[in-house]
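User: New here, any thoughts?
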Amino acid sequence: MSRLSHSETHMVHRIGWLRAAVLGANDGLVSTASLVVGVAAAGSGRPEILIAGLAGLVAGAMSMAAGEYVSVSSQTDAEQADIARETRELAQTPEAEFEELTRIYVERGLDDDLARQVAAQLTEKDALSAHARDELGISETVAARPVQAALVSAATFAVGAIIPLIIASLAPTAQITPVVAATTLVALAVLGGLGASAGGAGIVRGAARVTFWGALAMAATAGVGLIFGVAA
C-alpha cells in the first residue's frame, strides 16, 4: 500500500497577523468614516472634511502601530520571563520538572507509565520546548510578534481608512454623509465576512456584528456633528 501524506494549515496558524489585520482594517474604516460623517453633518465643506479624514488616517495608523507594538511587546516580555524562569528551574530542579511534566500528561488522559515515557522522550529531545508548550502554553505557532502586529495594523488601518476618503472626494458635497455611511456599511459587511471566513467562523455572523458597531459609531458622530454644527 502506498503511504499517503498531506500537510495541514489550521486557522490558528494565522492568529499572529489575522487579529491585527482585522482590527486595523475595521478600526480604520469605522473611525475615519465616523469622522467624515461627523464633520460633514456639522455642515463643513469638502476640503475641511477631507483634511479631517486624512489627519484621522495618519494619526490612527500611527496610533494603531504604537498600540499594537506596545501591547504585543508586553505579551512577548511575559513569555520570555516565563521561559527564563523555566530554564532556571530545569537547570536547578530537573527531577521536579520531570514530575511536573509527567503530571500534565496524566491529567490529559495518559496512564502513569505512558506519561513517564512521553515525558522522558520529550525531555531528552528538548526539555525547554516541552515545558514551554505543555506547561506554559507557548508555541511558535501563536508566539507574539510585536513588529509584525504593528506593521499589519498600521497598513490595514490605512487601507480601511482610505475608502471613506475616496467616497467623500467623489460624492456630491450635500450627499457626503449618506453616501459615505452607506458605502461604509457595505464595506464593513464585506470586511466582517472576509475576516470571519479567514478565521473559520460564520460569515453572516461576522458581517453582522461588524456592521452593527460601525453603524452605531457613525450614528453617534453624526449626532455630535448635528448638535454642534455651525452651518445651516
